[in-house]
Amino acid sequence: SQQGEEDPQALSIQEGENATMNCSYKTSINNLQWYRQNSGRGLVHLILIRSNEREKHSGRLRVTLDTSKKSSSLLITASRAADTASYFCATPMEYGNKLVFGAGTILRVKS
Amino acid sequence: EPEVTQTPSHQVTQMGQEVILRCVPISNHLYFYWYRQILGQKVEFLVSFYNNEISEKSEIFDDQFSVERPDGSNFTLKIRSTKLEDSAMYFCASSKDRESSPLHFGNGTRLTVT
């Protein structure tokens, strides 16, 4: 079974608009992480939210976590063309130390 | 800021050949990982490594794969006899500790098996 699954699969917005991406997961977690991947590059860690946190901010990023619904959202406010990338949520497996990544949301910000 | 470096950035090999992908993790990190991403697909976990041994591996990481930390800085992934389906981006990552610690990824090696 899949652990983290993002939706939408792709999102196209105008510069200045907000972008919201969602992630659902299946097992219990102690944290959830969001990563960004520019085309052809490695993943870059954006933000980590712990299971006892409901919301976290980092600059223009806002992440929420609802453990009762097993879901998280990533909001990018006032988007810029440079935000164009794929965004992945990742959760550590219940046992072991590996992070499992979702399929990602491809965000395109048009200028 | 320290970063994970991977070499080569692109490797082309013929089916059946052995390849070694190299990584230099961040120096004070203790956990090391290999992930792969087939074009347009998910980032898949291959293996994690801690204290000079494999701590976890996926079903993908079969007998054709091996990892090694030959010295204090390098972390390698060897594919013994490459198959066409091994063509993918291979990412090395490292982290300070096991839980609640973000992974730091390298920029990957694009492996093309012909």
How many helical stretches of chain A?
Answer: 0
Structural class of chain B: mainly beta
Order of helices and strands of chain B: EEEEEEEEEEE
Number of helices of chain B: 0
First-to-last CA distance of chain A? 38 Å
Based on CA atoms alone, the radius of gyration of chain A comes out at 13 Å
Count every beta strand of chain A, where a strand is a DSSP E run of 2 or more residues: 11
Please provide the ordered H/E string of secondary-structure elements of chain A: EEEEEEEEEEE
Q: Give the overall pLDDT of chain B as a whole number.
A: 93
* Radius of gyration of chain B, whole Å: 13 Å
Q: The biggest beta sheet of chain B, please?
A: 7 strands, mixed
The tally of strands of chain B reads 11
Q: What's the N-to-C terminus distance of chain B? A: 37 Å
Question: What are the main properties of this structure?
Answer:
heterodimer, A: 111 residues, mainly beta, 6-stranded mixed beta sheet, 5-stranded antiparallel beta sheet, 11 strands, 0% helix, B: 114 residues, 7-stranded mixed beta sheet, 4-stranded antiparallel beta sheet, globular
